[in-house]
Amino acid sequence: MKREISPVSKLAIGFVEYRKLYPTEYVDKNFRDMLQFEFLQEGYSIIEFENTKTASLKKRESKLSPEKPKGSGEEPAYSDELLPELLKDAAGENKRPELKLTEKHLEPSEIQKIAKEFGFRYFLQGAISVSDTLDYLDNEKNSLVFLHVYNDKGEKVGMISFAIDEKNLYNTKLLKEVCKEIATSFTQKIING
Q1: Crossing angle of the two packed helices 51-64 and 108-118, in degrees rounded to 10
Q2: Which of 6, 135, 166, 179 falls between 20 and 30 A from 102, CA-CA?
């Protein structure tokens, strides 16, 4: 049953970091998708911000910044290949080079800027952590969810946390239950306050 939410209850969901002990594909993407589904069931209009959106936000900001006067008429040649972050990958310092450098949480000022552009009232971003010892004799599983809630001014107005013992978010039934509880709690505590 879909609830009717006022049009001012437009919600944006940003980057949700996945902190993993052992690599398991798609837990973060499954969490985001299920969370969006449950918020849609609650009657929200969802705006999705992926990692590429944060990169495009930076590009828009750089285009809007005042241009520097050119001295000789030629731009100096440069390459991103020699950035310190990328040199760490080349030197083998980063053990997990598959992580994208664009993945990050938005700063309050960035949230405020995109809120003006897209007209949402609340913005969620955070992290999930899933651990599993993978030891058959002493198998310990747990999951943590932390979502920071920001208003359209970029102010942190709340936080949602969820801790699960003896299970983890690989389980799709549990994932659905957690996301449904988050969406319901958000409506009751943040919106209806």
Answers
A1: 90
A2: 179
Residue 140 DSSP one-character state = -
Per-residue pLDDT at 37: 92
Report the 10 Å Cβ neighbour count for 24: 14
Asked if the structure places residue 108 within a domain, the reply is: yes
CA–CA separation, 183 and 162 (whole Å): 12
Report the C-alpha gap between 96 and 9 in whole angstroms.
Answer: 38
Q: Is residue 158 in some structural domain?
A: yes
d(CA 121, CA 115): 7
* Number of separate domains in the chain: 1
Condensed to tens digits (0 to 9), the pLDDT of residues 28-55 reads 888 888 999 999 999 999 887 765 444 4
Which range marks the domain in which residue 31 is found?
10-60+99-191
Count of alpha carbons within 13 Å of 152, Cβ hemisphere only?
Answer: 12
pLDDT at 102 over 60: no
DSSP 19-84: EESS--TTHHHHHHHHHHHHHHHTT-EEEE--HHHHHHHHHHHHHHSPPPPPSSS-PPP--GGG-H
- For residue 133, count other CB atoms closer than 10 A to its CB: 13
> Is residue 161 within 8 Å of residue 144, measured between CB atoms?
yes
Residue 185 lies in a domain: yes
Residue 65 lies in a domain: no
